[in-house]
Amino acid sequence: MTKHKAGFVNIIGNPNVGKSTLMNAFVGERLSIITSKAQTTRHRILGIVNGDDFQVLLSDTPGIIKPAYQLQESMMDFVKSAFEDADILLYLVELGEKELKDEAFFNKITNSKIPVLLLINKIDKGNEELLSEALKMWQEKVPNAEIFAVSALQNFGVPEVFNRIIELLPESPPFYPKDQLTDKPERFFVNEAIREKILMHYKKEIPYSVEIDTEEFFEDETIIRIRSVIMVERETQKGIIIGHKGSALKRVGVEARKDLEKFFGKQIHLELYVKVNKDWRSNEKQLRRFGYNQK
To answer: How far apart are CA 85 and CA 96, in angstroms?
Structure first.
């Protein structure tokens, strides 16, 4: 009889290297939101992939940055925790990238006692010469890592990495029920769908000053009724989010509702409101309320 394997596979790297795209490719579902803006991922998101004799617990963490305020410090705490419980570490870099933004994190990777898979992503945007240079450089920089060339967006090389993950998993019973896809509640994905649209449609500081709070989530057989509040830090930001005669807010609501209907497979009734929550990004009590500062 084949023994069951299970373990935590934590994905780390700089912002915008494609961690969320890779996570979604592994899971086969759109769990992590994806935009071209840095700091799209704020939380540590768990995606669960089950087979008959394995359970892979994939963890998508925020991109590694030098924190400028308390929210970003909390985001980096999620990255630190990813080192602590990992059975396998996936270090994702972009073709052409030279180094990790934080030297302490890089030292942890090169001195890791657990298996490290270094994935050079976005190889579809380069050529053979660039890839050959990157392979040579990363082999020298991270000699303890197995190196793979992938395109998460095109799903190139992703199945080979996943097969290697399964080979490296420790023997263990499953940590979660076999039909479970993630450890996050429904409201989390509502918040993320709305935040993704704000990241896509607003400029400058606005997307980074926003947090979503889903106050109501009522599910019937055919429809889910949702009431969510968009929190901003200043009154001027509230006006920008709402837009002329509510047009900007309406666009966010319409697009988020479409994505949520696909995600939940049901009709969605979504009500959006905007409130000012002054300096929430530097307020420890507010950060705890929104799921940060979990220490």
So the answer is: 30
Label the pairing between strands 223-232 and 267-276: parallel
Residue with tokens 């998101």: 45
Global confidence as pTM = 0.66
**Helices 247-264 and 235-242, axial angle in degrees (round to 10):** 70
The owner of tokens 């606005």 is: 206
Long-range contacts of 29-38 (CB under 8 A, 24+ apart): 29/181, 30/263, 31/60, 31/181, 31/182, 31/184, 31/189, 32/60, 32/192, 33/192, 33/193, 33/195, 33/196, 33/199, 34/196, 35/196, 35/199, 35/200, 37/199, 37/207, 38/63, 38/65
The two three-digit tokens of residue 28, written as one number: 């086969």
Sorted by where each starts, the structural domains of the chain and their CATH numbers stand as 5-168 (3.40.50.300), 186-289 (3.30.300.20)
Residue carrying the six token digits 């509040």: 229
Q: What digits encode the pLDDT tens for the residues 128-150?
A: 888 899 899 999 989 999 999 99
Which two tokens mark 65? Answer: 């940055």
Could you tell me which residues come within 8 angstroms of residue 289 by beta carbon, excluding any fewer than 6 positions away?
none
pLDDT in tens, 89-140: 998 888 887 776 667 777 888 888 889 999 998 888 878 888 899 899 999 9
Please give the torsion angle defined by the CA atoms of residues 20, 76, 282 and 287, in that order, rounded to the nearest 10 degrees. 70
Structure tokens at 10: 């934590």
